[in-house]
Amino acid sequence: xxxxxxxxxxxxxxVTAGLIAFLLNxxxxxxxxxxxxxxxxxxxxxxxxxxxxxxxxxxxPPVFSQARQLGVRFPELLESGRQxxxxxxTWSADRNLPFNxxxxxxxxxxxxxxxxxxxxGTSLGLVVGTVNWFLDLILILVISFYMLLDGQRVWGGxxxxxxxxxxxxxxxxxxxxxxxxxx
Length: 183
Known about the structure:
This protein is an all-alpha fold. The chain has five helices and no strands.
């Protein structure tokens, strides 16, 4: 089972790198008119990286700020919820309605405790998973950069086992389908 997961992760990395290289190749081809392919690929990668950093710096701080605010206000929110349940219990008792909010309150409290324990228990797994994700990302970026540089040669080597007609149809069909998928 571990071998299947390992091979699946490798295939996922290669497919992701291939898609990134495919997408960035459009810009590289346009710049290749003015610059050598290696410089064009480097320039496209730097531009894409800067764009991702700008997007990350725009989106990530508000998300962390909201998560921190939730952590700070969480006890206050729990107390507010408990007060509303108490008010509902009083309201239902005044109208002789058969609601027992204490059971609901105990169940909600137990669920919250379970979730907090689950989050605390998975914190080490989260750190390891983040490091693994970061390493996968670096590997994807490196592989896709080399695919941008030598993708035509690698593709030619992979499809060299086919006849020229099949090779052409396979290349054109795959390129057209990827373009449709992306758009």
